Amino acid sequence: MWTRKGRLLGLPLTWCPSTLRGKGGDGLFKGRSNKSGLKVNEALLETAAKGQEVRVQGWVRSVRAQKEITFLNINDGSSLQNLQIVARSDLNIRGITFGSAVEIWGKLVQSPHKKQRTELLADKIRLVGACNPVNLPFKIKERHSLEYIRQFPHLRCKTNVFSSLLRIRSEASTAIHSFFKNNGFVHIHAPIITSNDCEGAGELFQIEPASRTAEKHENTHFFDVPSFLTVSGQLHLEVMTGAFTQVYTFGPTFRAENSQTRRHLAEFYMVEAELAFTESLKDIMEVMENLFKITTSHILSNCSDDVELFHKYIAPGQKERMEQMLKNSFQVLSYTEAIDILQRSTEIFKFEPKWGCDLQTEHENYLVQHCGNIPVFVVNYPYDIKPFYARDNQDHPQHTVAAVDLLVPGIGELCGGSLREERLDLLQSRLKELGLKDTYHWYEELRQFGSVPHGGFGLGFERYLQCILGVENIKDVIPFPRFSHSCLL
Amino acid sequence: MWTRKGRLLGLPLTWCPSTLRGKGGDGLFKGRSNKSGLKVNEALLETAAKGQEVRVQGWVRSVRAQKEITFLNINDGSSLQNLQIVARSDLNIRGITFGSAVEIWGKLVQSPHKKQRTELLADKIRLVGACNPVNLPFKIKERHSLEYIRQFPHLRCKTNVFSSLLRIRSEASTAIHSFFKNNGFVHIHAPIITSNDCEGAGELFQIEPASRTAEKHENTHFFDVPSFLTVSGQLHLEVMTGAFTQVYTFGPTFRAENSQTRRHLAEFYMVEAELAFTESLKDIMEVMENLFKITTSHILSNCSDDVELFHKYIAPGQKERMEQMLKNSFQVLSYTEAIDILQRSTEIFKFEPKWGCDLQTEHENYLVQHCGNIPVFVVNYPYDIKPFYARDNQDHPQHTVAAVDLLVPGIGELCGGSLREERLDLLQSRLKELGLKDTYHWYEELRQFGSVPHGGFGLGFERYLQCILGVENIKDVIPFPRFSHSCLL
């Protein structure tokens, strides 16, 4: 933290406002400034703890009173590990319970215990915020189920498992942005509100000002046209491939589907990338596989404690499954081969596998198992089941497009992508066929001014987190899940 | 780019899919793989250009035909600079015009020209996508106004100025994430859809499934309750300060206001941060000032060419104004002092400055000028004009709260923040007073389980870009602007 060292990372001292401002302004402020102090993860990592005076702030995770001494465990969200506080009996610890917020001054010393490097010998303890553990829905030393803690969206960050999840999610976001930046992609904020209404990616949410909804202005719209929450940033990224060779976006997308499965949310995050001058699905798949592997490897090495909690208590065996996925090359099957494998299997499916129909989750899971429980690319889907923008392979008799899905163990579809139809004549006739010609006039125009072969994909961020951590329910990997009948907070 | 070097950044070779997969799978793919090749910015930076064979892809920015030789300038979005291609007269360049997409193989050599380090002696040129310059709304060598190019949201990335803007925006996002990560903040995705409807931050967009809107199910809702697009992630970040000491979010926020000013959008991006164990506004302001200065300094050093384009052609004098902002400490005024300054000025205001009323843009601009055209913090606003969560200063006779706005030259309000009321009794009585007690029961509960003094702020990302680049209209710093009567694409 910068305040401890008196200056901000990489910032020349002359820019540090608190040292420069100082005089005069102070009268305006109440309260003390949050200077000095150590975070718990910093205290735990202190290699030369020799009794230096420090201050630590956080929440009490346990209180163990002995005759002469009380031990407190303190957590401040900086890591899964707690800092042990050793408090002599003459210190006032009245009111300090599981869940209270405290501030502690003391001496940081080497710990006699093997499990932790340092501990804090308290000189002074201040109760910052009390907590009545009787009313708190989480109980000390109890391991609550993910389902149970999900009922308390405003408090669940106080549990070990959910604070670990949030740290992993934050680190995963960092890793994804770094991956693209390191590989020369430009980050684009695709719009959330859009007037595109017919991409066929599922049911849409429509928006209007709250006041207007109430007054029922039926034929007027805030934006003059009906407007919706985005289902994908792809078309907007395609705009950018008119001037950039590689772009990506990472933001919220929406589906108004009345589904309550463990893999669906009404609001979820997608990572989408688009590559210009790309003539082979292979290039797209290479980015998908590398994104998966490099991001995962980053998370495993930067959040090892947090990931271990999931792999140990939530999904035993997941660690080994992850290693399998990382060390092997992802498999590749054509859609036609996939259907063939499904038809030849002895498995009884609810939906009969048939050329020309979409793969169901049961089919996806079978294919992944069939390939040895590692991720599988399925390529070249039937022309008729993919959206208008997928590039025509012009093959026959089985007419396909250059589309790809990535299926992963335990989840099914994690990514979907395709080459996009860059040939104006083919695009025009398909749009006409589908009655979309007027709506996508601008999209056609992209093919008239220096059009290039291009393609891209989208990865469901929550499904990705489910996949690497082994979390069953998608609602447990997002801070505030939204699904039909539920929009808490 | 990774494909050129045959392996991905930081990735062991054994993970590289294209080298491992190879056999067998190839039959599935059409088209050639996008292997080898150099980006324009890489080609320009090549210090040891001695005729090595390379391939470059991009769009033609100019064609200059001489008797023996044709010069092409190629841009691929990797930088503002173009790569000069030298084409002998025996090469086929039929159909290659301003705007076409091309692929060129040749030898990279030192350039005889001062302005560029390298140029490409072409051996082969392929027209990838033609362009009829007559139909393209942008003309070669013409400098179009921002207002003009704004009419073509699907094509404007093809202009120098807008591709520079997009690179700067991408780099600014990176800088902001780095700032928070380097300083120990955890990144939280605050929800976009929320059931909070009364924060008083402006008019809301309401959402329902498109099918439901049409069918006019009046008293049922997809989420069972009315739901809206977020105006701020603050309350959700406050949830997280129950377990993390520093959190932030960076995402889209929305206002359904019918305003068409140069500073307002219906969809815009906010950076919001929240700090636990914070008892002074000063700590919040320190983060605001450092975020501004460090991010700006990062952009200036990583996007110097792109920024220079704005400072030279769009906003002359902006460079010097930026330097002023960066090298001086931001000023601090209390709201009461600010009103006093405004009342004593000889300026004629449209709105009379009066204690107890909000500052208008004209007031904000006057205060910034009064302080020497550097950013100014205004602190301690009247209790009655700030939202319920602002912390009561319990002063009198002029009752204020610990809130702060940051005003910047040319823009006015860039950031707003406050300490939050962490004292349960004061919060409860205020919520009761405002009739919000039932809605914010969960928010009250945050104050019952280890509540800590905390505070935070939000920064308008587009206004920030306007401020550093000197761009007059907010619609010119976002890829796809949404405002009343307009939602193109």
Automatic annotation (TrEMBL), chains A, B:
UniProt xrefs under Pfam families: tRNA-synt_2, tRNA_anti-codon
Sorted UniProt keywords: Aminoacyl-tRNA synthetase, ATP-binding, Ligase, Nucleotide-binding, Protein biosynthesis
Entry keyword annotation includes Ligase: yes
Enzyme class: ligase
Gene Ontology BP, a term: asparaginyl-tRNA aminoacylation
PROSITE patterns per the UniProt record, alphabetical: AA_TRNA_LIGASE_II
Classification via Gene3D superfamilies: Bira Bifunctional Protein, Domain 2, Nucleic acid-binding proteins
A GO MF label: ATP binding
EC number of the protein: 6.1.1.22
Domain Aminoacyl-transfer RNA synthetases class-II family profile per the UniProt entry, residue ranges: 166-479
A cellular component annotation (GO) from this entry: mitochondrion
Presence of the UniProt keyword ATP-binding in the record: yes
Family: Belongs to the class-II aminoacyl-tRNA synthetase family.
Protein name, per record: asparagine--tRNA ligase
